[in-house]
Amino acid sequence: MSDHRSPDTGFRTSLLEENDGPAVNPTDNRTMGEIIAARFSRRGFLKGSLAVSAIAATVSPLALVAADDARAAEASAFTFDELEAGIDDKHHVAPGYDADVLLRWGDPLFADSPEFDPAKQSAEAQAKQFGYNNDYVGYIPIDGSAEHGLLVVNHEYTNPHLMFPGIVKIVDKDGKKAAEVAPLSKEQVDVEMAAHGGSIVEIRKDGGKWQVVRDGKLNRRITSNTEMQLAGPAAGHDRLKTNADPAGTKVIGTFNNCAGGVTPWGTYVMAEENIHGYFSGELPEGHKEAANYKRLGIPEGAYEWGAHYDRFNLAKEPNEANRFGWIVEVDVNDPASVPRKRTAMGRFKHEGAESIVAKDGRVVFYLGDDERFDYAYKFVTTGKFNANDLAANKDLLDDGTLHVAKFGEDGTVEWMPIVFGQGPLTAENGFASQADVLIETRRAADLLGATKMDRPEDIQPNGANGKVYVMLTNNSKRKAEQVDAANPRASNAFGHIIEISEDGGDFAAAKGKWEVLLKCGDPSVAEVGATFSTATTANGWFGMPDNCAVDSAGRLWVATDGQGPKATGRTDGLWAVDTEGAARATSKLFFRVPIGAEMCGPLFAPDDQTAFVAVQHPGDGGEDWEAFGRPSYYEDLSTRWPDFKPDMPTRPSVVAITKKGGGKIAV
User: Fold this and answer.
1) Residue 626 contacts by C-beta under 8 Å, 6 or more apart in sequence?
2) 610 - beta bridge partners?
3) 3-class DSSP state for residue 163?
4) How far is the CA of 286 from the CAs of 48, 283, 289, 312, 432, in angstroms?
5) Would you give the end-to-end CA distance of the chain in angstroms?
6) What is the pTM of this model?
7) Which contiguous run of DSSP H or E holds residue 45?
8) Residue 345, SS3?
9) How buried is residue 585: exposed, middle or buried, by Cβ count under 10 Å (0-12/13-18/19+)?
10) Residue 473's closest CA among 16, 5, 113, 118?
11) What is the pLDDT of residues 481-529, one digit of tens each?
């Protein structure tokens, strides 16, 4: 997901795609929209329309729909009664399931953690409590158990107008009421910094319900002040050196950790996404990093950290921003371990890092760059995974090849290596080493001619069927001249999902084939051009696909970001999507979040008996909901804190979904 300041309030928000970061790709590389249009106009549209015309000449259209519905219903991989879509201030789950809040912002994680008190927040307290805005959720078994393990959770960003009571004031401007947010104090910035990062929390299932093991020996908070090590090809490079770190190998902290992953050897990887908002100030005139930073939208200055800490002020520390935008690996079995930023995996606005072991034992990570007109990547390790000696895998991520995707009109995809000295990645184009290439991954991909995508977020490999699913959230900037009869949307407001089949079913392959699994949006509105199956109900369609998960049965689950009263008339949620057989492209709503919240996660326990989901920023942007009638932050937030109920989450939270009476979900 992306977070930026709302243009009308100045608050950080993630609800509307219009608040996404600037489209900073300056190239004329082809967009995914153009390629889809060309492919389907050249191959699929004529063939499909002729086939439909021929069938329709002899068969009633209503009979076709009825037959399609029957086939899809019979073949669906999901067996649950669908939830009704809607909007309110609660979360809802499909009938026959329980949804229990497991962790909330501020919950104590250690024996000496203070209880959460919104009126008495401090950095010291927050560093011992569950962080804010939980995005990625991962599970690492303890002793191989599906009912006892470590929950690893990313804390992406902070909403100070929802965090700090009294920070928002209502003022009269030209006879109209308006909201103003006060500048943050250093103490409040310190709380923000402690609320970022990640949490590692021991959890255990007891009597069918999950419980947090407070003060579990492996519990840990990672924050914007945690010491980290730079590793891989860019470590120690001059462009990563600062006054505080003249060696260019030690970084303090991580932030804007969006999606992530768990490696086959049981470590936790955190993806640094929208780093541009944390930096302010101006580079010295003529500084060599100017073009590099412009390509990433740095500085945006949405956060006020630079007013209190020099390292976030580019005028004082011009290289600091190069030390963020990486994948961070954490050894969860050692709470004293130093997390490592794995520079071999490239620097951009990482959405996630989902992995799978290829046929030859190398490990493949799929990576999205979450911005309009940016790219899809994969990283293939040089070394092979050793299942018999997990410690032998500890540095696999320091040596490998990063690739970027180029999608062809003929339905092929090419994974182009991003390697110094190959093709245009040479000194003539300003690269002196592989470190330079990785620090400026976006520019390297530009020169290779990668396909400009519509905000690539989660990219999930599916070991059960050998496919890869790419979530493309939306892109309202697609131009009208890119539209034709087979690609009818003047702007991709609702996003789509691409399915990749790697050659030979080998995830490390350099080439593959692609199809559009779904064009999202309301299929009842013809001009939207959605392609859900006709068996998809009025509750089953969705827009803005963001995070996704594949359960152990190989079934796809999709979470959304950006739905709401204006965009879709429903809140974000979790949908089950069929990908095989007659039910392909059929979707069913399983869980939905409160007004203003974003659906993150999701994650299935190894036995598929629990789905963990993350609910971010509930109540943000509620002015769009008639029942609120005004932004939720207009009130003194201290009045909202006293009563927290599981069916009415008012803090960012992780929810555990289980089947009543036990058993696998949707089976």
Assistant:
1) 565
2) 658
3) helix
4) 55, 8, 9, 19, 19
5) 30
6) 0.92
7) helix 45-56
8) helix
9) buried
10) 16
11) 654 332 335 588 999 999 999 999 999 999 999 999 999 999 999 888 8
